[in-house]
Amino acid sequence: MTDGAVTQVADSRARVLVAADKFKGSLTAVQVAERVTAGLRRVVPELEVETLPVADGGDGTVAAAVAAGFERREVTVTGPVGEPVTAAFALRDGTAVVEMAEASGLQLLPPGVFAALTATTYGSGELLAAALDAGARTIVFGVGGSATTDGGAGMLAALGARFLDAAGEPVGPGGAALAQLASADLSGLDPRFADVDLILASDVDNPLTGPKGAPAVYGPQKGASPEDVQTLDAALSHFVTVLEKAIGPKAAECAVAPGAGGAGGIGYGALVGLDASFRPGIELMLDVLGFAPALERATLVITGEGSLDEQTLHGKAPAGVASAARAAGKDVVAVCGRLALPPEALGAAGIRRAYALTDLEPDPAKSMPNAGPLLEETAARLARDFLS
Q: Which ranges of the chain have pLDDT less than 50?
């Protein structure tokens, strides 16, 4: 917990908005909201609490949309290593929230198994097609948590693009196979995208390739060795070159656009092939989830995620929530599994104080399996400081 004086904000009209992301590996965003609410009401039994689980476009985005009232739809698609998987998207009033991790996410691989060179985004294309089939006119495409580094080639192939090798055969799945690409044809892409507003929601603004590109920055998280990173970077660069011959300078322009490197370069595929627009994931998701009216009703906002660290400050959900709340003049406190930010960094982000589960149980091996009860107790401590 950070140091500093506490100004209590509660009175008989106090209303708390719990707008937190998941605690990865321990609790979903919905479970976080439930546990925080239970802990607050231990101390203030009649407290008004509104919950709005949030996500930044990565894994958990569909669940957050469903918690906000969207309808959950399920479809069978191709998983990252070719096996069928059940993936979900969310739909409400012509707006679909599609999460690429549902079809092509790292969590779909067996524990400890990676497929850095061969994992495909083909199923993400199938998931987008399912959203179109369901009548979506606006698609929020959340990208993050991917097992893939194929530049979105698999996704585009599922939607009608053709990527052929020198023998005129389709190239294999995954990023490494793009080194064999001889020709690209995007003319067969699903024409419905011309009439759909496709918005790329990502918490990263990395380019496709280079030292800050998808392979170099995120490849190691997907099991890529240094040699694999070089292979993938060269293959994706070749992908761009071949696309330039097919569609012109747009191919190279999109490769350096914000969001191109999102989720192993699927952002690039969406930008270059599907005319997607890019918005920071948490900013877009707060709009979609109805955060502004909920914020207006609140006197105190509680946000959080599993680890509050330097990454949090660069487009993660708690930073987005705190920024919007500060602009509205509302106090924000945070809960987290572990805290790796000094008080001044929290303050600069608009967070008054942060409470970590490690304050109660310093051993992560013990705190993660017991995150639920620890979070309830943490929320009770927060309520005693701010609401009682």
A: 1-11
Q: What crossing angle do the helices spanning 29-43 and 371-386 adopt, rounded to 10°?
A: 50
Helix (H, G, I), strand (E, B) or coil at 28: coil
Residues in CB range of 98: below 8 A, 6 or more apart: 62, 89, 124, 127, 128, 131, 139, 140, 141, 142
Q: What mean pLDDT value characterizes the chain?
A: 95
Which amino acid is present at 79?
G
Q: Return the pLDDT at 293.
A: 97
Cα 99 versus chain centre, distance: 8
Q: Does domain 15-52+290-386 have CATH number 3.40.50.10350?
A: yes
Residues in the chain: 388
- In the three-class reduction of DSSP (H, G, I as helix; E, B as strand; rest coil), residue 296 is classed as helix
Give strand ranges (E) for the chain: 15-18, 48-51, 71-78, 84-92, 95-99, 138-142, 162-164, 183-185, 197-202, 277-280, 300-308, 331-339, 353-356
Decide which of 3.40.980.10, 3.90.930.60, 3.40.640.10, 3.90.1510.10 is the CATH code for 61-282.
Answer: 3.90.1510.10
d(CA 364, CA 322): 26
Q: What digits encode the pLDDT tens for the residues 32-89?
A: 999 999 999 999 999 999 999 999 888 899 999 999 999 999 999 999 999 999 999 9
What is residue 315's predicted lDDT score, i.e. its pLDDT? 84
Model confidence, pTM? 0.91
**Burial zone of 210 (CB within 10 Å; 0-12 exposed, 13-18 middle, 19+ buried):** middle
In this structure, the dihedral spanned by the alpha carbons of residues 8, 283, 144 and 200, taken in order and rounded to 10 degrees, is 170
Beta bridge partners of 308: 339
**What pLDDT, on a 0 to 100 scale, did the predictor assign at position 12?**
53
CA distances from 104 to 115, 223, 362, 365, 384 (A): 11, 15, 34, 28, 43
